[in-house]
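Section 3.1: Structural characterization of target chains.
Under the original work plan, the team committed to producing a structural model for every single-chain target entering the pipeline before any wet-lab resources were allocated. The record below documents one such target. The sequence was received from the expression subgroup and is listed exactly as submitted; it comprises 76 residues.
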Amino acid sequence: MEAFVLLRATGDHRILMRSLARDRNVTRIYNISGDNDILIEISSKNLEEFKDVLNRIRSTKGVISAASYIVLVKFK
């Protein structure tokens, strides 16, 4: 199962990104411009594992808010 998470963050984004990169379920991390600060790609075995990953991300120091988007179909 794949998903994306958009984060709004505070503080030094590089520190937060290094912290998030230690999670085995986080496959990619992007520092982005716009209303959100960080885009994360997540891979998990099932919905239960995804919820655990999302809870870990949301409780990480520096995360203000998180919006998750589960991939329904991958086209390319």
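The two ends are 16 Å apart (CA to CA).
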